[in-house]
Amino acid sequence: MNVTSVTSEDGVKEYEKIVVEPEEVEYVEIATDAKVVDLTRHRLKEIGDYSWLTHVEQFSLRWNLLKKIENLDCLTTLTHLEFYDNQIEKVENLDALVNLEILDLSFNRILKIENLEKLTKLKTLYFVHNKISKIEGLETLTELEYLELGDNRIAKIENLENNLKLDRLFLGANQIKIIENVDHLKNLTVLSLPANAITVVDNIAGLTNLKEIYLAQNGIKYVCGIDEHLPLEILDFNQNRLEKVENIHQLTTLTDFWARGNQLSDWSILDELVRLPHLNCVYLDNNPFSQADTYRGKVLRFLPQIDRLDGTQCREKSMLRPPKTEKQTTDLADVEFEKSSGGEQEPVEST
After folding, report:
1. To which CATH superfamily is domain 33-176 assigned?
2. Which fold has domain 177-314?
């Protein structure tokens, strides 16, 4: 766009001329039998007619300027569809895509989860960074394994009764105060709830396959409500308000314990951690007790089983090898080096 303005001597604008230059058109060649189509960053403002793509399985429309989902009814072979980072406000016009297994609608302007009833084969669903205030519209998605609803406006965990195959549930950066309505998700291995308003860890005893739980940046003061029979491997309490940690020594499968940036003021935490045989990685920095000069040395003495402390390697891993035989020692002693006249070293057999 070119703008030209002319003003008189007394500063009064007499006229303004605006010339709009046509946008450059970029042509993309796509084979009619293409199975993967990537139209990322093409500044597309609308979805055209792609009915000739009769074999497409993966279709990416990431980082465009799309405001409406449309003209996809003919692409029934699709299994993977991405609308990441557009300007879409409503989930619509997807009923014909009955073979979809992966759908990404992250970073849009969506207010409600809706119109997904026919997508019964969906296994992975992303709605990161939208304006969603309620978990709903997932009743028919019984094959769903991976659900990402992080960075929305959700205040309650609900309406997941039919999603029994869920393996990973991500609800970080919302407004959730209570962990609830997840006890029936027996296949869940990862529960991620950082940056919410949770103060108590509760209602997870039924998650008999839970291996990782992420609770950073909440308001948790005490560790409680974690069943000793849970097969937890990663327990994340970074940046909470923890004052005391008790009874985690019962979590015998734990490999990672993260509690940096809390209010732990004494060394009693080590009495719990020392009893965890598989513990490998620990974060305890930015607590009152970790300000002591002796902090790192004391932790390493108490926890000889760990390899990483506060993100730093603790000790070099030992390399085991069999001892040298007497013959190998003798053979090495039989070779000496002496300087030649040219300054180079040459091996000389001893006599």
Report:
1. Ribonuclease Inhibitor (3.80.10.10)
2. 3.80.10
